[in-house]
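Example 9 (inverse folding). The structure is encoded as follows.
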């Protein structure tokens, strides 16, 4: 039986909403109104999100076939992992740009605009071509619905991404897995290189309750004919699981390990990479050494697979210039008005991410700037967390940092239905002994105003929803440049 939602009224509402939105897409495209076409396409796309997450490859495979299999014209790397996926993709993309190799990336989740989900040479796809690709993917979804059931929002997005790449004549892509690997819609594509960055506990309701079970889900992206890159540790048996998968399908693999890492404070790190010596990385935090090793091994695998060849000079230039918005992103003078203090944005939405942030602050805290004239002012932590996350574990991981234990903590919410209420978050924070003082703010903007009443550097973490909301506000204020992503249309994050 096709996988169908159980509520007939929901089906009717979704179909009506999608039909009206699609008609507006057609009108707007015909009239050359790119932003209007994009907004209408996004309404149609996100209407599918009301069916939630439904794992499986049947619908994705069928949808791509209905589109004429645009994914077959694209080669590259599929990147899975609990943490580090985005950093690896950012580093590989920066090196490809330095080498002059035109390519696409698919960051997940987005921060400000849904169009960030497909980028060409580091820039979000323009509204009109993205709208056109979404409209074609929606048409394909209609063609297959009776046979395989209604496609989900993410499945349609994946179809739209590959349709857009075909229209833009992009043949190289670095694709980030959405959830897990084995049953994720992106796994309908095989680019020739499969990467697993690391394995931790996250999304257990979909992937399993143990490191080993989650590792099996992620390792499944390695298929016969691939070259594999493994960044996972031996924690919970993850490395053995992934290595055995590669061996079973006959995929040559590299276990990527970084050498010594030296913090360079505000400007990034320097890490020893096998065969390359010391390499400067523009991303902040000691944990980026491991991501740099995985990214370098991925570039080697892309070369060996005949997909893309990046010189050592281009790798070094790209890694040094790499930036990853919302992930250990340092924004000087973020509050404006002569306030010179730093704002550090980091998604850190699970226990491992929070632990990495806490560890990084041992290096970074002495280099972070307080408000003008203030010395040794405590950090200010703005925190928002989704209710489906392990809030107690995340708070405890942040509390391993002495600087955060002494911080002024502002608990807020981003308004999403999944966002934990600020008072509940504050209770978890106090229980973990995170922060010297804890207060509540109604929303991210209110949290920024509250942070301005203190003197210390500001850190915003716990959810990419929060990071996206703050980045969007800073773009609106002109503190951050509009990188082409801000279109006043926001969707889901993590």
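The amino acid assigned to each position is listed next.
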């Amino acid at each position: 039986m096709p996988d169908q939602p159980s509520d007939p009224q929901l089906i009717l509402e979704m179909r009506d909403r999608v039909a009206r939105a699609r008609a507006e897409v057609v009108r707007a495209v015909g009239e050359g109104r790119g932003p209007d076409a994009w907004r209408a396409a996004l309404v149609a796309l996100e209407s599918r999100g009301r069916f939630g997450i439904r794992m499986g490859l049947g619908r994705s495979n069928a949808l791509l076939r209905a589109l004429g299999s645009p994914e077959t014209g694209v080669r590259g790397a599929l990147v899975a992992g609990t943490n580090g996926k985005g950093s690896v993709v950012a580093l590989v993309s920066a090196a490809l740009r330095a080498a002059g190799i035109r390519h696409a990336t698919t960051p997940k989740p987005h921060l400000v605009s849904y169009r960030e989900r497909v980028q060409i040479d580091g820039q979000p796809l323009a509204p009109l071509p993205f709208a056109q690709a979404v409209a074609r993917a929606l048409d394909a979804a209609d063609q297959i619905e009776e046979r395989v059931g209604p496609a989900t929002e993410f499945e349609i997005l994946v179809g739209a991404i590959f349709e857009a790449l075909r229209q833009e004549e992009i043949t190289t892509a670095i694709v980030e897995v959405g959830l897990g690997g084995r049953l994720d819609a992106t796994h309908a594509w095989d680019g020739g290189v499969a990467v697993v960055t690391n394995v931790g506990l996250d999304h257990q309701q979909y992937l399993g309750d143990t490191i080993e079970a989650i590792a099996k889900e992620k390792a499944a992206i390695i298929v016969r004919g691939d070259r594999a890159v493994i960044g996972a540790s031996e924690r919970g048996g993850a490395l053995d699981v992934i290595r055995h998968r590669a061996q079973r399908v006959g995929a040559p693999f590299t276990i990527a390990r970084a050498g010594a890492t030296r913090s360079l404070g505000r400007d990034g790190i320097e890490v020893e990479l096998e065969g390359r010596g010391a390499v400067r990385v523009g991303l902040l935090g000691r944990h980026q050494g491991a991501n740099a090793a995985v990214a370098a091994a991925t570039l080697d695998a892309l070369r060996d697979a005949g997909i893309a060849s990046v010189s050592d000079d281009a790798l070094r230039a790209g890694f040094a210039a790499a930036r990853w918005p919302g992930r250990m992103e340092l924004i000087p003078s973020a509050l404006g008005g002569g306030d010179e203090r730093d704002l550090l944005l980091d998604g850190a939405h699970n226990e491992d991410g929070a632990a990495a942030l806490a560890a990084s602050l041992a290096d970074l805290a002495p280099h972070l700037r307080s408000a003008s004239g203030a010395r040794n002012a405590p950090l200010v932590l703005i925190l928002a967390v989704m209710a489906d996350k392990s809030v107690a574990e995340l708070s405890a991981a942040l509390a391993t940092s002495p600087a955060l234990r002494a911080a002024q903590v502002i608990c807020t919410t981003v308004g999403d239905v999944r966002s934990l209420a600020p008072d509940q978050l504050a209770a978890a924070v106090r229980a973990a002994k995170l922060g010297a003082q804890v207060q509540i703010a109604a929303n991210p903007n209110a949290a920024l105003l509250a942070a301005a009443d203190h003197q210390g550097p500001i850190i915003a973490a716990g959810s990419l929803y929060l990071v996206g909301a703050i980045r969007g506000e800073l773009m609106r204020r002109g503190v951050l440049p509009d990188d082409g992503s801000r279109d006043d249309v926001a969707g889901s994050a993590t």
